[in-house]
Amino acid sequence: MTKAGIPKADKHKKPSSTRKNEKKVRNCLMCRDPFMSEWSGERVCRKCKGTSEWRSGSGWLSEIRLP
Fold first, then answer.
1. Which of these, 53, 24, 48, lies nearest to 36 by C-alpha position?
2. What pLDDT score does 32 carry?
3. 47, 36 in Cβ contact below 8 A?
4. Could you tell me how many helices (H) and strands (E) the chain has, helices first?
5. Dihedral, CA atoms, 64, 31, 48, 59, nearest 10 degrees?
6. What does pTM read for this prediction?
7. Distance CA 67, CA 43 (A)
8. What is the DSSP letter of 17?
9. What is the rounded CA–CA span in Å between residue 61 and residue 52?
10. pLDDT, tens digit, for every residue of 21-44?
């Protein structure tokens, strides 16, 4: 144990989140249709993930040009 009462093995661990994975209606980044997202990082609907455009990596992301 450290002086703060934290076990030494846990001293450098990332703290666990207090947030729950919240289901939420979000707009798909490809088709813009609303869909039920299971967690905050899910931003493309199942319909769009099933397309060849999504699987090939082409689409709106490939059109973005970085400086």
1. 24
2. 93
3. no
4. 2, 2
5. -20
6. 0.58
7. 25
8. P
9. 14
10. 789 999 998 899 999 999 888 999
